[in-house]
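pasting for ref
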Amino acid sequence: MNLRTFIKNNRQDWEELEITLRELSKKTVKPTPELLDKFQRLYQKANQHLSFSQTYFPKEELTSYLNNLVLKAHNTLYRDQITSLQQIRQFFGTTFVRLLSEQWKFILLASLLFLLGAVGSFLSVMNDQLNIYFLLPPEIAYAVDPEQIGGTVQSSDSPLFSSEIMINNLRVALLAFAGGTTFGGLTIYMLIYNGVIMGALAALFLQHDKFYEFWAYIVPHGMIELTAIFIAGGAGLLMGYHLLIPGPYSRSFHLKRQALRSVQLLLGTIPLFIIAGIIEGYITPAPISLEIKYLFAILTVFGLIIYVWLGRQFGKRTDESILSPD
């Protein structure tokens, strides 16, 4: 059986299960025995379809869709045993990490687009320093002074500075995410544009022999911040790609389906932006050695790696519990 035939034969069951899940999620609706029987039947069939899809179509979009559908059904089945805190822990502990694992290609593409802009602007400014005024917004080009790097933020100003940074970064992420509705065009622009700013500044500081200092003030918060921006950009590219190339599904299906997954990816970046904002407000301008700043950046990278690794391990256990016989 090929993929299209499999979808055609079973799509109605999946749509009915989604409708049933929406009915059961309404607090005003009291489940009837007939509704519960229907849910149980559709849930078991979806489990079987997921197992079949994992065997014969492991890399297809359908497998990811069925996995999430079964997970939602599983959570609905045991929702009385799950508190709000547990739902939050489950999202950041398994669901978000699973989405990262599934959509790593789009996240990687987002990082490459950023890198493309950074390398291009870096080479441009290295060739002619005056290009900095063409590549950067006036408020940055005329304000930046490599000789003044290392100026500290007063402790009383740190909370305000940190919140401003978080708001700005979230604005960038939202634009990169929303760009998916333009078939990814705006997302691509935002990623390349932010890369251009980074590359141009790096070249400027290199020309003033402040390259080491520049990165020491960027990487402590930048590793987490850029990761979050790449994830948000990947979410926008994911939605844009499936709107542009819908495959066996309709564009309306992808708009609902991929928008939901992209929103989940975006929501998962919020704690990352909060952490990055706090670091940029308190740690980055702190009067500590540059070596300690670099060490702190390395620790944040290890923290991200450990988080993803643990999330994947917990996710595997969750999948095993869902697919095991009751």
